[in-house]
Fold Major facilitator superfamily (MFS) profile domain-containing protein.
Amino acid sequence: MFSALGETLPGNQKRSPLAVLNGLFLNKASSSKYTQLSDHEDTFVSPTNDRLTGSTLRGSIAAVCGTAFLLFGYDQGVLGAVIGLPSFRAQFDNPSANLEGIIAAIYDIGCFIGAIVAFLTADRYGRKGSILRGCWIMVVGTILQTSATESVQLIFARVVTGIGNGINTVNVPVWQAESFKSHNRGASALLIIQSALIAFGHPLSTFMGLASSQVHHSSFAWRWPIAFQGVFLVVILAALPYLPESPRWLAQHDRLDEAASVFAKLEGKGVTVDHPIVVRQRDEVKAAVQQELLLGSASWGEVFTEDKNRNLSRVLLGAGPYMMNQWCGINSLAYFLPITFERNIGLSTQLSLIISGILGIQYFLVSWLPYFFIERFGRRKMLMSSAAACCFCMAMISVMLALNTTASQWAFVAFTFLFFDVFSLGILPVSWMYASEIMPLRTRNKGVALGAASHWLSNFVVVYITPQALQSLGYRLYIIWAILNASFVPITWFFYPETARRSLEDMDAVFLNERFGITRTRSPGTRIHVDHDSAVVGH
């Protein structure tokens, strides 16, 4: 497990892996950016098992990242799968709508905290090290959730689990993007794949809840689906020691020889660090890091300044799709889907779980479709079309609930299915890529972090208010979501420039030329391929 942690000291003295691991926590010098790049290193760390090279290594990294994305989706959906079970409600004294909202939403506060922690510490501990810590935090949270006997323990445990997940959702996409830089079809494709895997976590958690609900009078019915998170964590923790650190992170810490070794292993068995492809990748990452050093890191004051680069406008525009993702009402349904069917139209617990699981599978399948046309149609068209369709679905959901007939109740189910489909075709993929596509390099990390923070805080508010709003407003709640979705269409049309097939430099020019907020850049660019770094994902 510690084969990647050995370190050679001056005089060829070997420092123990345990000492190196200890240094990750205690040596502050390791957290700072290096000030110069050298072509030769005094240290070398074997980054991976020698048997893992080429497509096998890339597939292993993809499998671990995919497992992390599945865990994210599973963790978001699992409470909705168990909160309506009789044994769960008996265990926690039939929680009120207010307490249901707190138990569900507090997880998002944990994710928010975890994302901030990741932003502050990822450069120090590396991508792998941060993911490792995030997983162990989630292990603790899972144990505390599974063993909960009081609502206070369950709430605390969901915060802990959320912190670990927040750390992972920041670091896993970055690790994957930086490892696959020369092998993927662009960050937009990666983000769509990640979103689809997260979507698959929902039906998985629902069917786990359905399977265990057969023993609905035992606490096993709700404890087992929550404990099942540990299976994903075991897979990730078992595989991580055999996989390499991000070559970009290694280069950022003046470890270019190790970065070159990782590039060689990613290319295939027998490829050496002197291979032309590896040399080119090494030179490219070296040049990119040097450029970052020249640019320096922007202060928070600069991020919120509306200068010629329009940093403040970009931050607000970048946060907008993240917030649209939440205020369209998706998690008002997704977090409580089985009990929504159970309470709104009187379905049994078993049938509610079955329908929720089928909806989740359809959601997963449809969420792959943007992979094929998001670059062709552009972000604006997909975002506006999706928002308009979501508005229609929410309006019809409200009408069907108000009619309260057998036919209208099943129509409510149909429009819920349709809502998830149209959401996944536009708002979902665009919300997670737009901020990283418009922020300039100097302020990009902070700008994207603020966007992700707005997502988690909006998620918390939406999930927290939903049980109480349903109790007091009933079908009228969905009218509110419909109005909000309708507002996204003109907002996008007037203020959001198109980013498809445009480089970061192209977007800099767009914001320099459009000084008054109303955009004139409404069509995709002309570049064949634009590669942007990945961002945190979710819904």
Notes: Residues 91 and 253 are 50 Å apart (CA to CA). Residues 50-243 form a domain with the Growth Hormone; Chain: A; fold (CATH 1.20.1250.20). Residues 97-146 form the longest helix (50 residues). The first strand starts at residue 7 and ends at 9.
